[in-house]
# Entry
Amino acid sequence: MRIRILLSCVALATFSASAMAFSVEENTPFAALQWNFGTDTTKPDVVIGYRSVDVETNGDVSGWQGSVSYRPEEGVDKLKLEAVDGDADIQYTYGGGYSLQEKQALVSGGVNGSYLTAGADYLIGLRKIEPYVGLTTLNDYDVPREPVVNQPAAHNQPNTVVNIDKSQTAVNNNLQIQHFPEYRDCNC
# Structure
């Protein structure tokens, strides 16, 4: 129960903070080759996934990713769903999943940056850590600029409005035409 409350508070704080800044959503399919330490083979696992993140104007990145890994000669292995947090250059991932080969739940943590990935999966039932390094198609993100809002010039905004009765006021149309060529006497 405490874990659910803690996760709810973290999610609320994350979404509240990201709602205050302008951001751009990036949805990216990705692929990776990951070499796992402590396995019987030197062949890399093939990972295919999908990442959805918000990139804010200050460079912060937050979102999620899901992935499926394929271990050569053994078949589909890990299904993972992870949170993504960090900045435009380096993102940290943490989450959980399931190993179909080991038939075990797992928790995962890692880091991605400039076509490189590294991390570790902890198989809960076996109490086994499987670290990995790899190459990925994920790169850094372009930081969006804040939208520009054109403000009217201060001298175009009169502070007071004065109503003038033109019937009793002399108007020199020649000066107005000389200094304001767009002026036309409308007799109003």
